[in-house]
Amino acid sequence: TSPLKYMFILIDFSRPHERTIDDLEIIYDELLHVKALSHLSSLVKRELAGVLIFEAHPFKGEVLFTQGGESKSWYIILKGSVQCVVYGKGVVEIFHEGDDFGKLNLVNNSPRTTTIILNEDNTHFLRVDKDDFDRILRDVEANTIKVKEFGKDVLILDKVPINVKTIDGTYQVYYKYFVMSGTSEKMLEHFLETYICVTYEEGDTSLDDFLSTYVIFMPINQICASLLS
Hints:
- This is Rap guanine nucleotide exchange factor 4.
- It comes from Adineta steineri.
- One of its GO terms (molecular function) is guanyl-nucleotide exchange factor activity.
- InterPro entries: cNMP-bd_dom (IPR000595), cNMP-bd_dom_sf (IPR018490), Ras-like_Gua-exchang_fac_N (IPR000651), Ras_GEF_dom_sf (IPR023578), RmlC-like_jellyroll (IPR014710).
- The chain starts with a helix and ends with a helix.
- The chain is globular.
- It contains eight helices and eleven strands.
- α1 (about 5-15) crosses α2 (about 20-30), α2 crosses α3 (about 40-50) and α6 (about 185-195) runs antiparallel to α7.
- Helix content is about 35%, strand content about 30%.
- The chain is α+β, with helices and mostly antiparallel strands.
């Protein structure tokens, strides 16, 4: 059995808390070759080795999650491909082996912005659930996230530190992705999905900036059509 196949077996049939030191080392060695994790430190990869879950889906057409649903996990494709579907637009992107998805919604605590449908039979994923993502990855993720549709960047977000006052009067730093650029339609979509569904963060002027300038980039009839859709 190849090390990669062995890793699949370990993750599939061994509960994370039951993995031995040898199991974790084998999984870690294989994570070094996963493209979606290449920007992460060795320490973070070792932590992920203890929590990653292998998930296999046998049939094309299965819905992994739906737009508007609760964001519970981050996914990395190990085998196969998936369709990324947006309501009113249809298929906007196809993700392949080595790609990942679901991260931005976890970071921003927002609902799913797309529906993910399996594009092939026998598709395999690595999955990180929200609690583990928040503990291990929230503050070490890439500084910039680019959202693509039809192969083009339609939204670019940068990670910015936010100071939040705690109950005892001290301040705690955490990170949130702010909009840096994008198409008018995608920015509107992002604001509707993010700012209406989650708490508006003090100091984030992205929504105010968009509302005060959208008329320059997006005629009234276009924004009305987008809102209705």
